[in-house]
From TrEMBL:
Span of domain N-terminal: 21-157
Sections of the chain in a coiled coil: 330-357, 526-556
Species of provenance: Bacteroides finegoldii
Keyword terms, alphabetized: Coiled coil
Protein name listed in UniProt: DUF1738 domain-containing protein
Every Polyvalent protein metallopeptidase domain range: 211-315
Amino acid sequence: MAGYRKRNTEGPSSEDKALDLFAEMMIEKIESIHKDWHKPWFTEGALQWPRNLSGREYNGMNALMLLLHCENEGYKIPRFCTFDCVQRLNKPGKDGQELPRVSILRGEKSFPVMLTTFTCIHKETKEKIKYDDYKKLSDEEKAQYNVYPKMQVFRVFNVAQTNLQEARPELWEQLERENGKRVENGEHFSFGPVDAMIKDNLWICPIKPTHQNEAYYSITKNEIVVPEKEQFRDGESFYGTLFHEMVHSTGAEGVLDRLQPTSFGSKEYAREELVAELGSALVAQRYGMTKHIKEDSCAYLKGWLDELKESPQFIKTTLLDVKRASSIVTQKVDKIAQELEQNVTEEQEDKRSAKERIFYASVAYLQTADDTKQLDELKDKGDYKGLLALAKEYYDGNGMDEQYTYASPLQNRGDDLLIEDKDFAVVYNGSVGGTYDIMLKYTEQEVRDHITRYGTDRASDDVKEVAKDMAAEQFAELTHQRMPVFEMPNGDILYARYNRDKDTLDVGTATNAGMAVQHHYPYDHNMTLEANLQAVNEKLNELEEYREELQEAEYGGGLRR
């Protein structure tokens, strides 16, 4: 029969092999905790949430195993890429410049990640649509489609398994900086989104901090009870315990329908404890916190090991439940965090409205070496809507590349904007055989968010101009309260201001005419304003001219506000 493909039944599938590996890793982790249950699930303060090279986060199940994989192999940067992703790094840029070739190091082995893909087929016409398009349909329109899920296994490499550090040193330094950004969690650490969730009753059930000594989720009352934060040794311990109970609560009827009234100590109860432990450890890790095993869960360590060793399905069902539960928690926390950020003053709202100009990010650049025959035919017929629909299929979903993001879609002589909608634009250039630039549109606020997250090391000049605006606004807001002042060891008082034209922090003394600038320091947009000022302070303290009266054993310079 045409299209029939014989199924391989001679050995385990790639999914089975991946689950076997996951089970082995979980056994090793739980055995290590069994020896010392005071240790955290993940190495304290070591790693952020795993992402692919373009910055997209892995889901809960994959994130859990990739974190364990990083710990086992000693990887310091939890960023991963497929073989195809590595090859895409070797495509020449728009200027045709050949960069050093990026490759997987010889002898390195890949690691499996599991991804559920969905095929969406119309019940009557049998037309297929992409899952992203399906999700945008109304409920009535969705009812006209059959959706078929399929679990697929992809193989990925950690960036440390490539020569990226030598071939793309700037990208490597950026990845190192991103992974170095950790939440500073002191004794009185507070996590605003969760605090707001408790205060405003925004979780799927009530959360009741009460001055007592137990933390639990009540199935019958559908509520979480935890001790008050002040009763814990630090903020991390409070949130880690709360995340454990929040994961339990996702199993309630009408949510994930995972929980049934079971007796304490049963196999079902033990498995639910593992789901809550792994889920809460993942959630804590995502927000830069450390999660230790809950003392009540230690009684189940041996049972978990026995199930992992005896039942192949145990790891699969457990990890899927961890994935679903942790996703509900993080999506809710992220939504509240986003809403908190949006609660700004009218003045800030006016500024935001002024930032709605559109930027264009190149997501696919098709040259003569690419097959553009279909695009050419649609262009020649004048079917620009069809051309736009086809062009969108070249977008791989990786998002904004700040190096090729511009304030205008027209960047080269001969560029012609053929068509655009609210999300995409297609630019054609008839010179040198004809090229198509497929561009994704972003608001300036989205560009600003990207700068905050990734810096400007690879940014276009247009993006760097936005970064300068951001620095100028931040400095103006700071000086509205009080101008930054440096008190030097020899008693000199220096003032700082941001020079947008030169993109520098200028430092000097105050005069009747303003400020007499004595030093210029380049502004680093990969750091906060506070970090830039601190760096300037450190450099000033190294200068001999301010150390003449310094008694090193007794004094030191500092930043005053």
